[in-house]
Design brief:
By secondary structure, this protein is mainly alpha-helical. The protein has a domain at 132-278: Four Helix Bundle (Hemerythrin (Met), subunit A) (Up-down Bundle), CATH 1.20.120. The protein has nine helices and no strands. The protein is globular, with a radius of gyration of 21 Å. The N and C termini lie far apart (68 Å). It comes from Caldiarchaeum subterraneum. Pfam families: COX3 (PF00510). Residues 4-272 form the Heme-copper oxidase subunit III family profile domain.
């Protein structure tokens, strides 16, 4: 086993994923407080907590980054194939912790949204521009097909059909990119510049951009991860006994899809239901 491979198989337990996850929830709370003009000092303090945690993490972990980067690029070049198969057949502890922090993040976001929503007699508040759900419906179908594509990739790797694995992963990434193009290139410019629906329009607009922006960032992160998986699939670094990374990314992608379904139901369709009765 090479030095790079040895480093790759040696992982120390870390509390940082959980700490960063909790601090991200604190960040969301701080941003909501600032946007609602509830208490500037409190909101700014919560945002500062997140910045302090990230700063502490960088200061502690930066020394190990050169080795991590070396291992990462060695894999991409195909010069460091793991001597032991990647764990499959279940969610590993790092993946489980990461997903737990992500669930906590969006749970905090949705909880804040519902608390604010219940404080208004009608929702969205009167005067909120009407939101068309045509593009969000297209995005829903895109993520649906992307979930099918990543499942096809996992199905294929279990049968050592590596060409199909690459095709499934690339298709998933393309659907994800299409989702982002519709969001950032079509829907949001229309809302911001044509409709005048900006974060300062009201509390509904603020929550709209916070929740959908957070989800969009997760889609982007998923697309980048899919790019790494696709490259490794191209190098034929997966097999029926070694596909842990593919499995973890697929679970993350399904989580992103589930969050979108909740956003679509409550942010878009909830608003349209109210508008239909006004």
């Amino acid at each position: 086993m090479t030095a790079v491979e040895h480093e790759e198989h040696h992982h120390e337990g870390s509390v940082w994923p959980a700490v960063i996850g909790v601090s991200t929830v604190i960040l969301v709370a701080g941003l909501i407080i600032l946007l609602k003009n509830v208490n500037f000092a409190l909101g700014a303090g919560l945002v500062f907590v997140f910045i302090a945690v990230i700063t502490a993490f960088v200061a502690k972990e930066v020394k190990s980054w050169p080795k991590v980067i070396e291992s990462f690029f060695a894999r991409l070049k195909g010069t460091a194939i793991p001597a032991e198969p990647e764990k499959v057949g279940g969610v590993g502890f790092p993946t489980a912790v990461f997903l737990f922090t992500e669930v906590a993040l969006f749970a905090a976001g949705f909880s804040s949204y519902f608390v604010i929503r219940l404080s208004f007699p009608v929702w969205p508040p009167p005067g909120t521009p009407h939101l068309d759900d045509f593009i969000p419906r297209l995005q829903t179908f895109m993520l649906l097909f992307s979930s099918l594509a990543i499942e096809y990739a996992v199905y294929s790797v279990k049968r050592d059909r590596l060409g199909a694995v690459l095709g499934g992963v690339v298709a998933t990434a393309l659907f994800g990119l299409g989702f982002l193009v519709l969001k950032l290139g079509v829907e949001w410019p229309h809302l911001l510049f044509d409709v005048g629906f900006t974060p300062s329009t009201g509390i509904y607009a603020s929550m709209f951009y916070i929740l959908l922006g957070a989800h969009g960032a997760h889609v982007l992160g998923g697309v980048l991860a899919l790019g790494v998986v696709a490259w490794r699939a191209k190098l034929r670094q997966f097999s029926s006994t070694s596909y842990g990374l593919l499995e973890s990314v697929s679970i993350y992608w399904h989580f992103v899809h589930l969050v979108w379904l909740l956003l679509f139901a409550f942010i878009y369709e909830g608003a349209l239901t109210w508008a239909a009765h006004v």
